[in-house]
Amino acid sequence: MKRGWLKILTLVATLVAIIAIGTVYFRQVEGWSWLDSYFFTVVTLSTVGYGNLVPATVAGKIGTTVFILLGLGVFAVAVQQFGLFAMRKREEHTEWLIARLGDDTDPANEDDAPTSGAP
Questions:
Q1: Contact residues for 11 (Cβ-Cβ < 8 A; gap 6+)
Q2: How far is residue 32's CA from residue 34's CA, in Å, rounded to a whole number?
Q3: pLDDT tops 60 at residue 1
Q4: Multiple choice CATH, 2-101, 3.40.190.10, 1.10.287.70, 3.30.420.40, 3.40.50.1100
Q5: What is the pLDDT at residue 35?
Q6: What is the separation of C-alpha 4 from the centre of its chain, rounded to a whole number of angstroms?
Q7: DSSP code of 112?
Q8: Phi first, then psi: what are they for 54, rounded to 5°?
Q9: What global pTM score does this model have?
Q10: Contact 45, 19 (CB under 8 A)
């Protein structure tokens, strides 16, 4: 259980680090405000790409392509791991419910029980 939380925490920290690095990079290279740099980083990382901010410098364009290739991989893994985490939590909850309520294999309605002969 603790291992799952450690994975989630590591992924969140990695995402925060990538967003911070991208924000600082675009602030320095493109000269955008902190908010514009952050916005561009998140929009690019999430593949939304509104297009209202576009890198104008060569370093900005090259940095953006590298950022997309690296960032999208981490973003995809993070989304996948969050999905797995949610599925595991649901499975644990289902197992807890079955253990708590018991595993009744009898039909809920005796009238619906299968018959051995013809009707």
A1: 77, 78, 81, 82
A2: 7
A3: no
A4: 1.10.287.70
A5: 97
A6: 14
A7: G
A8: -135, 130
A9: 0.65
A10: yes
